[in-house]
């Protein structure tokens, strides 16, 4: 049997971004892989192959995912955003038509080979666009800096205090669109933009560096201690955002920037680093 060819890094990044968005929003929206499969008229196994990066995303699945999550296709695939936008702009004489009207024309002319479910999903996505839910054609163009990308928000609560168990909670900041070049100009160091995620810190123990509910930009590929810094980590089944310093061979010193909180010694073997904090998205009142 021929081994399946591995996806390119770009296509795998699309799958990872799609999975991150799905995982971060599924609980709030009451979605499962089974319900996603039903909406896309495919098997649950096929959904898993898309989200796990075995198969590349296609426009049909992207349109369904965009509609169910309420996010633009561009947030996980610029490639498919452009492709879907192309479906809604068949030629210049259609400029006055809505997205759904243009897709109906496209389906009538070229959609004979599509299943009824696929036709329905494309039309639903276009109707969602009419209501402002999808990215319009113009949004696929580069922004002012020229390299803006979407960064997904992870639905976890990272405590800057006594530790907290992740669960649902309201957020000030959801998925964001940023320029990797601008981040690097600010001194943020990372390899690929799709390694970056947003989380929210809760509590006062890291003040004034990180205030309660400040959004944090983290690199989820950092899964081990890489030097003194602020990390997202799990210890005793609780999540923390704290400074870590190596203390001897088998211990970390867990440090709070708030001087009212004393440092603690924790075992390296009981600490699981999940990400490194790269940037605090402070919102200071003026």
What would you note in describing this structure?
This protein has helices at about 10-30, 35-40, 45-50, 60-70, 80-85, 100-110, 115-130, 180-185; strands spanning about 150, 155-160, 175-180, 195-200, 215-220, 230-235, 240-245, 250-255, 265, 270-280. It is α+β, with helices and mostly antiparallel strands and about 290 residues long. The protein has two domains: about 10-140, Orthogonal Bundle (434 Repressor (Amino-terminal Domain)); about 150-280, Umud Fragment, subunit A, CATH 2.10.109. The strands form two sheets. The protein has an eight-stranded mixed beta sheet with strand order 2-4-5-10-6-7-8-9. β6 (about 230-235) and β7 (about 240-245) form a beta hairpin. α2 (about 35-40) packs across α3 (about 45-50), α4 (about 60-70) packs across α7 (about 115-130) and α6 (about 100-110) packs antiparallel against α7 (about 115-130). The longest helix is centred in the first third of the chain and has 21 residues, at about 10-30. Residues about 90-95, about 130-145 and about 165-175 have low confidence and may be disordered.
Taking the alpha carbons of the first and last residues, their distance comes to: 65 Å
CATH architecture of the largest domain: Orthogonal Bundle
What average pLDDT do the residues reach?
77
Q: Return the structural class.
A: alpha+beta
Helix percentage: 25-40%
Low-confidence regions: 88-96, 128-145, 165-173
Instruction: Determine Rg (CA atoms, Å).
Output: 22 Å
By CATH, the superfamily of the largest domain comes out as: lambda repressor-like DNA-binding domains
**Percentage of residues in strands:** 15-25%
Quickly name the level 1 CATH class of the largest domain.
Mainly Alpha
Number of helices: 8
Largest sheet: 8 strands, mixed
Q: Which fold name corresponds to the CATH topology of the largest domain?
A: 434 Repressor (Amino-terminal Domain)
How many domains is the backbone divided into?
2
Domain HTH cro/C1-type: 27-76
Pfam family, one: HTH_3
Organism: Pseudomonas extremorientalis
Keywords: DNA-binding, Transcription, Transcription regulation
């Amino acid at each position: 049997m021929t081994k399946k060819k591995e996806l390119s890094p770009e296509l795998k990044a699309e799958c990872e971004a799609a999975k991150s968005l799905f995982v971060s929003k599924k609980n709030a929206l009451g979605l499962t892989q089974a319900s996603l499969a039903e909406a896309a008229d495919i098997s649950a196994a096929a959904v898993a192959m898309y989200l796990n990066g075995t198969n590349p995303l296609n426009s049909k699945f992207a349109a369904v995912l965009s509609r169910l999550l309420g996010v633009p296709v561009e947030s996980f695939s610029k490639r498919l955003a452009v492709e879907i936008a192309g479906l809604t702009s068949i030629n210049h004489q259609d400029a006055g038509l809505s997205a759904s009207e243009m897709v109906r024309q496209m389906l009538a002319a070229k959609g004979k080979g599509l299943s009824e479910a696929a036709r329905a999903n494309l039309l639903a996505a276009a109707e969602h666009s009419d209501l402002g839910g999808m990215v319009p054609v113009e949004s696929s163009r580069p922004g002012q800096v020229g390299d803006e990308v979407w960064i997904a928000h992870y639905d976890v609560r990272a405590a800057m205090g006594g530790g907290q168990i992740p669960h649902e909670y309201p957020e000030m900041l959801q998925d964001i669109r940023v320029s990797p070049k601008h981040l690097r100009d600010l001194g943020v160091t990372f390899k690929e933009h799709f390694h970056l995620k947003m989380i929210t810190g809760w509590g006062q123990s890291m003040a004034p560096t990180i205030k309660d509910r400040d959004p944090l930009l983290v690199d989820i590929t950092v899964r081990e201690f890489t030097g003194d810094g602020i990390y997202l980590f799990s210890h005793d089944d609780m999540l923390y955002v704290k400074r870590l310093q190596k203390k001897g061979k088998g211990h970390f010193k867990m440090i709070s920037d708030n001087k009212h909180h004393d440092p603690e010694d924790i075992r390296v073997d009981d600490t699981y680093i999940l990400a490194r904090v790269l940037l605090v998205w402070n919102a200071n009142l003026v």
